[in-house]
Amino acid sequence: MAERPPIRSRLAWQEEVGAPQELRSPLDPKQVDVVQPLQIDAGWLPVYQFERRRVDSIVSFVSSPEKEESQKIPFLQNICDLCYNSKRHGPPQGLDLFCQRYGLAENIKVLLEEEPRNKLRTAVRWNAMLAIAELSAVERALEGKEASLLQACFSSVFLLPPEEKMQDMGHYLFLKTMEAMDNMLQALVLGSSASRVSELLQNIFQMLLNFTTSERECVQERAVGRIEKMSSALFRHPTLASCARYLRTSERTDIVLVFIEAMRDTSIFDKKRATDLLDMVMEFPDFWLADLPKIMRCIHKNLDSINTAPARQSVASLLLLMADRRPGKVLTTLLRIAPPGDRTALDMWDMMISTARPLKKILKNLRKRLLVIDSMFPKGVISGSESPDMARKIQSLLPQVVGLLDHSNTDVKRRVLTFFCSVMGHLKREEARPTVEQLEEKLLPLFDDESSQLRELSICLFRERVQSVMVHDKKRIKSYVHRALLPLFFRLSDQSNNVAKAAREALLGAAELLKWKQLRHLVRTQQTWRIGESLLEQNRSRAQELLSQSLPYLRDAQASLREAAVRFIGLAARPLRDRREEEKLAEICSALRPLETDSKSFVRSLAAQTIVILSSPREQPRSRWALQALCCWRR
Q: How far apart (Å, rounded) are the C-alpha atoms in residues 453 and 417?
């Protein structure tokens, strides 16, 4: 049997009486409807012949209308002895009926509720826990009464004043009572039938969780302490371990949340104990980490208030474990809950990718998951990329994301480009090189995307690519830049001011890289109409390529770009007319003819004029003024 307090005189155990009435239990013993025993002879009880004195004493106590203070502890200890000794003499036949008929559970509950809540004056609470533990081994003795008994136990003990306000004897009694309560809770579960153990476990933890929300910190700490003891016992006690599966997922998760919140700087709960609790959670992750999104949200909510080194390290270990076990779920949850620029999210990312194994799993999972949750994608990651340190840490993630630019969803591509724009500014040029090389072929088609945001972002990224070129890489990149010049030139006429501005800046960067002073001057002075002519002069060997490259712009949705394309084609086709390449001229005129019925009159007029010029035989060299007139013709 568990250690029991010695039976002493009432004065030896009692603290000074005189508690304010309002601090006593709200149940007045005169108003409590105590179950009265039936007037029967207890001699029928098989154990009566061995425990006559204790049985008679119990019957006498419950039958008395006035409960003497000096008789309360003996009553409770007689229950313990009766239950314990009855097992020594074989199965306790009839003992359950005796307990029910004489209302032992109800009487214990009343005794607990009568104890004043402003002080711990006697060993009644301690003995009550021991008695309940012994009764739990008697089949059906507590059936249907566990919940009310538990509520009485928790309220009677948890609502006591803080330990530091207790006198020496009170503090001793409190420690022994808490120890007895932990043993009682385990005994209740062990004594419960298989059909009821699930309900009992849920009741125990739900009641304890309710107390963790108390405004009084000492109440919170006591409840969390019981959760700790009970949770630990569920896995370390050889018999209790089989009962753990009956605890619902929601309750397991709520317990983990309580452990995390206990780490907060403002919590008076001992941080060493709190870290031990999380260690226990991590020791049995299959059981405790069932609802990762809820746990992730709790960490996100509380991390800023967890600043002690051991506590923060414990949370980091928990994040690493979750990322290692279920990288996809952790990744998608963090992306959902983290608003742009969220500092806490950055810290969580930092914790999760601090080691290679979880990071590798997260990256492997990224592409597959993001195709499903594309609308969320860099919402959270962008916030992480805004930190230079974080951007460098997640650079290995970037190649995985490049492929998302093939996605058909415009919003996905927009988010991906925004992500890259955010990252590139923080990466060193050498670090950025492998990724931006993969981006090159993806960017150029996006210059002409229907979305103005995609056009702007892709052009901005092109500019970043140009600016990040290393000396030893310039030769290779020049051919790429040459292919981008004409699309950028046409985008100078984009109806979106942002796109036109981005194209101007990108052209300026390209001119710097190619060391084209004339192009740089024309871009800076915004002589748009002369830039096309300069491109042809600088790329005479590529004139036919530029001509072919410009033809798709005749079908552009923007009239301003169709107009610019007609003007450029008129200039680019001039050498063909000089060389009398009639077949190629016919192909160009054929491409221009649909524009003779264009919705815009200035496009119709310019197209018709260009067709006439290109179709007419060249009799004499045209003056430079005529060529400029073709280039500069205004709508």
A: 10
